[in-house]
Design a protein that fits this description.
InterPro entries: Uncharacterised_HI1736/YgjV, YgjV. The chain is mostly helical and 171 residues long. The protein has one domain. It contains seven helices and no strands. The protein is globular and about 55 Å long. The N and C termini lie far apart (57 Å). 40% of the residues are buried.
């Protein structure tokens, strides 16, 4: 496996963007950086030959940008349907289910959740992407999702702790 191929280099860029994204405590910053990360992922997976993952990443980028402006259930439904239909069409094997599940859970999170719930469902999506990346042979993607799981878990813990302190102060 070539660690310095153009596909892997773009995967490393996605890695950096993803780590920066999940450090954010403000939802709109998180979503914006995830969208840009997904654009890098789109190229990365296309160059690795994983069309289902590439499509899911592209759709995720658009979805995140759109979810910054609206929480329309109709648009959420569109993104869910597109992810399922096109993801299944592009799938080359059973491992495509990971990218499809990541895209669907990310859609639900982006349109209907905020704060800790948003990050919790994105944590599940991270585990799906991690499984996809291991199956695909994405070095940067595997490192990225492992670190994102750790960073997001830490951020969720800090947000939960901050909420708990606010509740105690009100008592």
């Amino acid at each position: 496996m070539d660690f310095t191929s153009p596909a892997q280099l773009v995967g490393y860029l996605a890695f950096v963007l993803g780590v920066i994204a999940f450090i954010q405590r403000i939802d709109w910053k998180l979503k914006t950086l995830i969208a840009v990360e997904c654009l890098a992922y789109t190229v990365h997976f296309a160059w690795l030959g994983n069309n289902a993952a590439s499509f899911s990443a592209a759709l995720s980028a658009v979805r995140m940008f759109v979810s910054l402006k609206t929480r329309s259930p109709w648009l959420a439904g569109f993104f869910l349907a597109a992810n399922l239909i096109v993801g299944v069409y592009l799938a080359h094997g059973w491992t495509a289910v990971f990218a499809i599940a990541a895209g669907c859970s990310g859609t639900w999170a982006a349109f209907f959740l905020s704060g800790l719930k948003l990050r919790g469902l994105l944590f599940f999506a991270t585990l799906c992407w991690l499984s996809n990346n291991i199956a695909t042979g994405s070095i940067g993607g595997t490192l990225l999702e492992t670190i994102i799981a750790l960073v997001n878990g830490n951020t969720m813990w800090r947000l939960w702790r901050a909420q708990k302190v606010k509740v105690r102060e009100k008592e």
